[in-house]
Specification:
Length: about 625
């Protein structure tokens, strides 16, 4: 039985296929169309999922869409009625996509499937937005029962929810509703600090360790009225997202000492302090909600989803200091993951099919749910284009790649199935030597074409993780969603804290540990733990690197350049390889050396774009 989940038309469109209860494929549309955060009907992602599942043209049994468009439309209309003529511009901007697409979603889906050659099933279901997030958090989790926490910007009305999952059902017990929203509050600060809403939140979180939380009192006094259970009311006189096209207004600017930072301009101490302050408030809200959820559900484990669940600093704190023994976070915590939630909701909740959780393993397959390309196919493609390569397999391959990393190569890897969700987890990654003090700026400037204030993330062999990072043995972070400190004995603490200015480039190049490229200024790291079970390809490379150097850690950053989606195909990977100063490209068993490649047409067209990211 085939159940297709779709999330589309807002941001990060995606599709997921559940086949007899098993999640067999999921992908985001942006990877195929090469348009970052593509919100279009995910025709390519659907085509991929159905083809991967071997679904016949009339073999689709149900389609589940990840929110209820009519309810959202009603919320919009009510909001516009509330704010009156002030909202006219925003209203006029929003309406065309509603009247063209969003109100016609059943027809859009039917037409889209028809164009792909599939018959639309009679069963077309709609879940509520936060039900999709909740379903994506609980159903694939390892737990038989758990408290469910979701937080994002907004769905229909809900902006966060507390629920419980038991066996094959979920129920949502409490909701916080629009316009009070942790996601929108965080996005308001993202906007005010000059980053893009819905994508720059990560950057704001990365800035927080540089700042001092001096604005927290002002946030509590003026912006939000926070209760013990984590719910809150926002003072909408400071925000503009009800009626306008911006997130914050003049009153907000007056409260925080001046106008918003314009994008790409220099970051000042104020932005650092604002980032630190909103991070403290976010953690406070998450912790209060978590304690309340633990009390009302009586559960000792929790599962999380929604965009705010990508705040791995808050997750780390929740795990260390929160009320739950264990937490599991949906790796595609944003709206793309709604496709997985919707499909699993259809299978378990609507169709009532049983669910088996073993308490240990989740059913996300390491988030490796996208397309894979065989070595033979790649070799044929390389031969056809006359791109030289050497072919190596097994341990020989792993050792060859490890030796290249150890000699300082920046290595692009494309191996196994593409990741689902915003993080690259070793299958579409750029990897390098975390011990090198210069690797961070090399990778940023020569490969990613940005100057970053964020260190890279480490990928570490799971068995060795607690030797390098401050986590309990047995705690895992397969999806790079937890932050932990680098262990004391590896830290390099300056005798005296250097005098600070806001030139983050100086800060970020300070050596903070024996693994400088992955250690933040507060000695934290955003880690991925790697096992041979979920990714034998990636695990074997790090293992060989550990054998060679005694270091079980490599740098792992996404395989893309600034502004582009992560690569999907060998073609995407080769183009990115040739347009940057990457040294080695690994395409499954085929290993390519930059200096041996023929001149590349596209290379001259590439413009270096230096900016903070
Ligand atoms: Fe959402």
């Amino acid at each position: 039985m085939n159940v297709l989940g779709i999330s589309a038309f807002y941001h990060d469109s995606a599709a997921a296929l559940v086949q007899d209860g098993v999640l067999v494929a999921a992908a985001q549309e942006e990877r195929f169309t090469r348009k970052k955060h593509d919100a279009a009907f995910p025709a390519n992602a659907i085509a991929y999922c159905l083809q991967r599942g071997g679904v016949a043209p009339n073999g689709l049994d149900a389609v589940v869409y990840y929110d209820k468009p009519i309810t959202t439309f009603v919320r919009l209309l009510k909001t516009y009625l509330r704010v009156g003529p002030k909202g006219m511009r925003s209203f006029l901007q929003a309406m065309p996509t509603w009247t063209r697409e969003k109100l016609w979603i059943p027809y859009e889906i039917e037409r889209g499937l028809d164009q792909l050659g599939y018959r639309s099933p009679k069963k077309l279901w709609f879940t509520e937005h936060h039900e999709s997030h909740a379903a994506s958090a609980f159903f694939p989790s390892p737990f038989e029962s758990a408290a469910i926490l979701t937080f994002d910007g907004v769905g229909e009305w809900a902006t966060s929810s507390i629920g419980v999952g038991r066996g094959n059902t979920i129920s949502i017990e409490r909701q916080l509703t629009f316009p009070n929203s942790l996601g929108l509050l965080y996005s308001a600060f993202t906007y005010f600090c000059g980053f893009r809403v819905n994508s720059g939140e990560y950057k704001l979180m990365g800035l927080a360790p540089y700042g001092r939380p001096i604005y927290t009192d002002r946030i509590y006094e003026h912006l939000i009225d926070l209760r013990n259970d984590g719910s809150f009311r926002m003072d909408m006189r400071y925000f503009n997202y009800l009626s306008g096209l911006t997130m914050t207004n003049r009153r907000f600017a007056a409260l925080f000492d001046g106008p918003p930072r314009s994008p790409e301009s220099d970051i000042t101490q104020r932005e650092l302090d604002l980032a630190a302050s909103i991070q403290v408030v976010t953690e406070d809200i998450v912790m209060r909600m978590a304690r309340y959820a633990a009390r009302v559900t009586g559960e000792c484990n929790a599962v999380l989803a929604g965009g705010v669940a990508l705040n791995c600093v808050a997750n780390g704190k929740l795990l260390r200091e929160g009320p739950f023994d264990r937490i599991w976070i949906q790796p595609a915590a944003g709206d793309a993951g709604g496709a997985v939630g919707a499909a699993l909701y259809g299978w378990h909740q609507v169709l009532g099919k049983p669910r088996h959780a073993d308490g240990e393993h989740d059913s996300m397959r390491g988030a490796y749910l996208g397309p894979r390309f065989s070595s033979d196919e790649i070799a044929a493609w390389l031969d056809e284009h006359g791109y030289p390569y050497e072919r190596r397999t097994g341990v020989d391959r792993a050792r060859n790649v490890a030796a290249r990393i150890a000699r300082g190569d920046v290595v692009g890897v494309m191996q196994g199935r593409m990741e689902f969700g915003p993080r690259a987890l070793g299958h579409r990654s750029i990897i390098g030597d975390a011990r090198s003090a210069s690797m961070q700026s090399t990778m940023n400037l020569k490969i990613k074409y940005r100057e970053s204030f964020r260190p890279f993330a480490p990928a570490v062999l799971e068995d060795h993780a607690s030797k390098v990072f401050e986590i309990e043995p047995g705690v895992v972070s397969p999806y790079m969603l937890l932050v932990a400190g680098v262990r004391d004995e590896l830290r390099i603490v300056p005798d005296e804290e250097p005098v600070r200015d806001t030139d983050l480039r100086k800060w970020v190049n300070e050596v903070r540990s024996t693994l400088p490229a992955i250690t933040h200024v507060d000695y934290s790291a955003r880690l991925q733990t790697v096992t041979a079970d979920t990714s034998p390809e990636f695990h074997s490379i790090i293992e060989a690197f550990d054998e060679l150097t005694g270091c079980p850690v490599v740098i792992n950053t996404s395989f893309n350049v600034r502004g582009e989606p992560i690569v999907c195909t060998p073609d995407d990977a080769y183009r990115c390889f040739m347009r940057t100063e990457m040294d080695t490209l690994v395409l499954e068993d085929c290993i390519l050396t930059k200096s041996e490649q023929p001149a590349y047409d596209d290379a001259g067209n590439w413009q270096h774009e230096f900016a903070l990211d």
